[in-house]
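ok trying this again, last paste got cut off
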Amino acid sequence: MLESIRKRRNSIVILVAFAAIIIVFIFWGAGPSNNDNQNKTAVAIVDGMEIPVREYAALYKKEVDYYRSTFKGQFTDDVARKMDLKHRSLDILINRALALKDADAKSIKVAPEDIQAAIRSIPAFTKNGAFDKDTYFKVLSANRISPAEFERSIEDDILTGKVRETVVKDLSVTDDEVKAAYKKEMRKVNFSYAAFDGDRLKNSIKVTDEEGQAFLKDNGSAFMVPVKIKAFYAFIGYKDAASKAKVTDDDIKAFYEKNKDQYALPERVKARHILVRPTPGAADMNKAKSDAKAKLEDIIKKIKAGAKFAEMAKKHSEDPGSAKAGGDLDWFGRGVMIKPFEETAFSLKKGEMSGTIETEFGYHVILVEDKKDPSARPLSEVSADIKRNLTFDKARAFAKDTASLLGAKLKEMKDIAEMKKAANDAGLKAAVTEPFSEADKRIELVSNEMLRDVVFGLRAGEVSPAVETHEGVYVIKAVEKIDAHVPDYKAVSARVKAMLILKKADETAKKKAEELLAKAKGGGDLAALAKAEGVAIDETGLFSKSQGFIPRVGAFSGDKPALFDLEEKSPYYPEVLEANGRYYVLKLKNAKEADESAYESMKEQLRARIKAEKQEEAVSAWLKDLRGKAKIKIFEDML
């Protein structure tokens, strides 16, 4: 299974389709940044350029989520560890940094219109199937990403794509290569096989207590009893505490006066605009820009001559988000629109129209319909919100103080009944657990991540500080703590012997298969040799490389091209094949060469795949060369 997972996602380590990386970071920010405090914020430094921890963490999470959603229960922590996803994710970001540096060295540039086209193609910024400028700014604002920062990351994304193209642009695939690949792809092979199953051998294997004790000593972690804690805990909810929290009108007024800034309304503008874009992808972009500007200037003349701005916007504006509404942008404050547009809008007076304004989206004309100076919302409008917030704050403070006072008393108490009485007297609900480990999700103190971290950080007899959660406040006492330990051999001897028997049986099965293969390759008869071992000979049936798995064996064949190259004069697969706990010796019985009648229909599909494989190899070699020349420092403790 691990091999198939790697096959499905392996190319991401080489370079990834860089155009997709921006989707990973759309809600995180993107692009390497420089920071003097490198050791604390960087996961790696590539030729002086920092790769921030936040970018690495975001991509690593994305990778884990991808595998977990794709392979469900098959993707275990052990599989994740074997795949080394942490370093694979970091490799992607290092490759990206090196690609950007190479693009700069090759003087590769990105045109503004390419950036615009990339942004407009991102689904997160569309509304009713089309790019929507308001949605674009709202999404970025909600995620604390400035348009300039986001657009720089898009530019980097396009740059990496362009520099990759310089690496692969001259690669081609000949007809002979396609024909050879077709013959190999469509050749069908049938194997005779002998399978050795450790499970069938385990009854013949004996294990002594001395062997079991030695095995436990060497493999203690497999039998480790985890840390267990018996805990007393008490809880007070914010809803219960709210009855103790009284908020007066004077409290509300005092809070309002002290925090008027929270209720300030910034300067705002109500405006309409008309947008005219240069023709996308025009051969002569300078002429396209000139034509767009001239068209807008003609529109402005008509408005000045008496045409209605809203009607002209409906007829001529190329902003899909506002054109149907006559260019209406409604009210907006500073920091929402791109800089040139914003500066012009806020410089105009009520009823005033701008001249031609150029932005990365094209050419605009703005009509300011109304303006509002900075002001504050009146107390009557916000008093209900203030009361609700003050009530919660007081309830929270009361709950925390009450839990803290109980915690101080619990330190001196050892009797559970005494602890429960003290909690009940203070108005808290109390409970005591049986010893539990971090795996016991049914326990409230484990299912809540915050409480779990606190309780397993306590020593025996220690009381936690008040722990605030979304629902209320807890205080916890570790009544008893049993440290993680390897149990005595007597307690787990049956498990130890069973595991050791399986291990020995597996090793024996593998050894028998290897011995059989060596004898068969030396000239022995496979069927006779297998019979002597009590193993039957079976057949896979004909299968091709395109099927992906070996029938009846279950092993992944996509990474074993030698299976399909075997001939009658040398029929044995050169090594023992392991699949699903069994060990296989494979001998080619017969083959059926490719039927060329389907060649024409598959030719171009094969050509595209071979070209993609060549491109991947070329990109891999290019990046390997860049890495060899670069100075790369990785902070392993940040992974």
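PB: full thing came through this time. Residues 100 and 251 are 57 Å apart (CA to CA).
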